[in-house]
């Protein structure tokens, strides 16, 4: 897999265009593919795999993980979890806050 954005692992920081090493777990790779942070993610969009097939992530991203994303990627992530109405014109702080509030509501309603 080739990094499309800056990706930091416990071994190395990869720049866009660099080939990722083998230190990433299958779960890590699926997350990177879901976020389209690596080349080849689009091939999983129509998959029956529950992580990719219906656009819902296997788990919600943390505040730290959201802050590492660009504003357009946060908007894309928000749509993937069912949160619509966000735009890249909003501040990154507002986007992260909205996504975190939405995931908290979902988690609370599931309990």
What does this molecule look like?
By secondary structure, the protein is mainly alpha-helical. Helix content is 39%, strand content 4%. The protein has four helices and two strands, in the order E-E-H-H-H-H. It has helices at 26-34, 63-67, 71-80, 92-110; strands at residues 7-8, 13-14. It has a two-stranded antiparallel sheet with strand order 1-2. Strand 1 and strand 2 (13-14) form a beta hairpin. The longest helix has 19 residues, at 92-110. The model is unreliable at 41-58 (pLDDT under 50).
Which key features would you list for this structure?
111 residues; mainly alpha; two-stranded antiparallel ribbon; globular
Quick structural summary:
With 111 residues, this protein is mainly α. The chain contains 4 helices and 2 strands. A two-stranded antiparallel sheet has the order 1-2.
Trace the largest sheet across and list its strands: 1-2
Beta strand count:
2
The whole-number mean of residue pLDDT values reads 78
- How would you characterize the largest beta sheet? 2 strands, antiparallel
Structural class: mainly alpha
Which value, in Å, is the CA radius of gyration?
14 Å
Distance between the termini: 37 Å
What is the tally of helical segments? 4
* Cα shape: globular
Please trace the helix and strand order, writing H or E for each element: EEHHHH
Which percent band covers the strand fraction? Answer: under 5%
Proportion of helical residues: 25-40%
Task: Flag low-confidence runs.
Answer: 41-58
